[in-house]
Prior knowledge:
The protein has helices at 7-33, 43-58, 119-140, 147-160, and strands at residues 62-63, 68-71, 93-98, 100-102, 105-106, 109-114, 163-165, 225-227.
Amino acid sequence: MTDMPTADEERERHRNLIAAEASALALLDAIEAGGLIAPGRSEREVEQDILRLAEERFGVEKHWHKRIVRAGANTLAVAGDNPPIRVIGEDDMVFVDLGPVFEEWEADVGRSYAVGGDPRKAALVAALPVQFEAVKRHFLERPDISGADLYAFACRSAEQAGWRFGGTIAGTSSANFPMPAGPASSITAISAPRTRRGCAIGTVSAVSGTGSWKSTSCRPTALSVASTSGCSSAPEAAL
């Protein structure tokens, strides 16, 4: 049986996770600044460019999960799926889901993009930070809330805003690498107090995942908001 971490160890762990989160968000910014996501490029091309960028500019040599770039119809696939590689279309939705490891600390971030000029898709992307903040606020006001109740709130919040929650999983945790595995029965709490806007996975992700960790780096696989018109329903997209 392992010893419980001390308060100082938990504070240090939290600092390391937040630092990893900040580096991962800077990686997302660099992806955008480099124009890596553009019509006519394949998902694989974008993914390989992200791999090189992460290593050359951020020193990332490990990724705790596969780098995911999904476009168009592929945004409907869950993380574990491997749909046929797609070329980004002129009017596609695109999301990236990344799990870079910074000095043995996991991060998990993502973002969604409306590549073309479709106003409905642009509205979906714009709705993500709003939904993120709503779910985060709901959690912070109820620190003892269960994962199931927070997930249900995320679904209601999306519906009230005119969207449909498309996520088929509630989320996951990030931790020191490699993340220790625990029994499924122990995954009962949402560790979202550390989650902040700008982190997310999926078409609309927003809340840190269903893990019993006391602190996590940003892992918003929870809120995948899909538009009722079917613009997007990726279970893991980003804010």
